[in-house]
Structure formats: C-alpha cells, structure tokens
Amino acid sequence: APAGPLAGRHVLVTAGPTHEPIDPVRYIANRSSGKQGFAIAGALAALGARVSLVAGPVTLPTPPGVTRIDVETARQMAAAVEAALPADAAVMVAAVADWHVADATGQKIKKRADGVPPAIALAENPDILATLVRSARRPALVVGFAAETQDVIALATAKRVRKGCDWIVANDVSGDVMGGADNAIHLITEDGADSWPQLPKAEVATRLAARIAEAIA
Ligand code: C5P
C-alpha cells in the first residue's frame, strides 16, 4: 500500500472542460486544458491518497497512481462524481459547462437552402459542486475553484459562502492561465485569503496537496 500522509484517504478530483454535443459531430466546449486538475490529482497520489480523477475530454496522460474516469458532458461528470463517493475530500477543478444543448439531435444538422441558420436552445447543467456539498455523503473537505478576471478575492470569498464549500482556489484568469503553464492563485478559507506567488501549475498542485494533507490527514 502507498505510504505518505494521505495513505488510506480517498480524494475525488474533477478536471478539464466538458463537451456538450449539438449533434453527432459538433459540440460546445471551453478553453480548459485540464493541466491544473491533473497536476493536483498527481500531487495527491504522491502523498499516498487513493485518487479518483473524473476527467473531461483532454489528451493529458494519467498521473501515476491515479484512477481516471473519462467523461464527456457535465451530466456524465455529475454521475461519475456520484458513483465515486464516498470520499474524504473533493477538489472540483473542472471547468464544467453551464449549459447543454436542449435538443441535441442524433443526426448531423444540415445547412438549409434558404440560408437560415439553426437556433440552438440551451438548458442548465447540474452544478456538480453545489450538489456535492448538499449531499448526505458530502466529503469532509470540499475545495472549489473560481476563475475570475477582476475583484478576484472579493468574488471568490463570496463564492465560497454561496457554494457552501470549505475552500476556494481563486484563479486570476485575466492573463494566459487557461492552457498556460503557470498559475497565480489565492487560497480562500474561512480564515481569509492566502495569496500565492505566480507558480508553475505543478508547484501549485504540490502546495495545495500539502494543505489538503494537513486538513484531512
Ligand atoms: O459558479 P462557478 O462555475 O464559477 O463555480 C466554479 C466551481 O464550481 C468549480 O469548482 C467548478 O468545478 C464547480 N462547478 C461544478 N459544476 C458546475 C459548475 C461549476 O462542479 N456545473
């Protein structure tokens, strides 16, 4: 069995974007690369945790020691998170699409001769984090992420309370964080905000995993 401060602990991590199909060949997506979430999953496994990584569509390699569950849509991600419980902690890094296409068709949408483009109606996706914190099987520590471009600490502090999670990792995405190698984050807890310097995503992951180990080990 693996050694380390998180040996015997199960940690759930979501990462990457979701893809929401329009028809069999088209989808709505976002710019999440999955890098930060995969790095966090790897750092937790390196501390001995059993890690379930629910991953949206990305081409990244699975970190050593991590159990990966691949999903495509937000609704599939919600089901995979539910199926992976119980867990001692959850780190919700995924950039989950807020909406899916309400009437996704099984056939490829054709261009019309009259040139009228199709209308795409959207429907709300489940909020996986909000569902988890209200669940009877809520992990003892739930960590959410918040991507903001302004008033980062104030908005993330409000989001921590609104979402009911224990910590928020607030990302300043006004630069080229999405897809980039570095991340500048503020860790928001009930004690306030701890601002970290800009660091490689692997280093952010190592530090966050160490904080999680202090909290739940
Ligand atoms: O409200 P917002 O999308 O900014 O919240 C971000 C946090 O909530 C992230 O931790 C993200 O993984 C999670 N989330 C989720 N399901 C959604 C939307 C966001 O788990 N449908």
UniProtKB/TrEMBL annotation:
Its EC number is 4.1.1.36, 6.3.2.5. CTP binds at D98, K108, P126, D127, I128, L129, F145, K159, K163. Residues 6-214 form the DNA/pantothenate metabolism flavoprotein C-terminal domain. Its cofactor is Mg(2+); FMN. One of its GO terms (cellular component) is phosphopantothenoylcysteine decarboxylase complex. Keywords: Decarboxylase, Flavoprotein, FMN, Ligase, Lyase, Magnesium, Metal-binding, Multifunctional enzyme. GO terms for biological process: coenzyme A biosynthetic process; pantothenate catabolic process. The keyword GTP-binding does not apply. It catalyses: N-[(R)-4-phosphopantothenoyl]-L-cysteine + H(+) = (R)-4'-phosphopantetheine + CO2; (R)-4'-phosphopantothenate + L-cysteine + CTP = N-[(R)-4-phosphopantothenoyl]-L-cysteine + CMP + diphosphate + H(+). Residues 11-217 are annotated as: Phosphopantothenate--cysteine ligase. Pathway: Cofactor biosynthesis; coenzyme A biosynthesis; CoA from (R)-pantothenate: step 2/5; Cofactor biosynthesis; coenzyme A biosynthesis; CoA from (R)-pantothenate: step 3/5. GO terms for molecular function: FMN binding; metal ion binding; phosphopantothenate--cysteine ligase activity; phosphopantothenoylcysteine decarboxylase activity. Binds 1 FMN per subunit. In the C-terminal section; belongs to the PPC synthetase family. Catalyzes two sequential steps in the biosynthesis of coenzyme A. In the first step cysteine is conjugated to 4'-phosphopantothenate to form 4-phosphopantothenoylcysteine. In the second step the latter compound is decarboxylated to form 4'-phosphopantotheine. This is Coenzyme A biosynthesis bifunctional protein CoaBC. It comes from Alterirhizorhabdus solaris. The lineage of its organism: Bacteria, Pseudomonadati, Pseudomonadota, Alphaproteobacteria, Sphingomonadales. The chain holds residues 181 to 397 of 397 of the full protein.
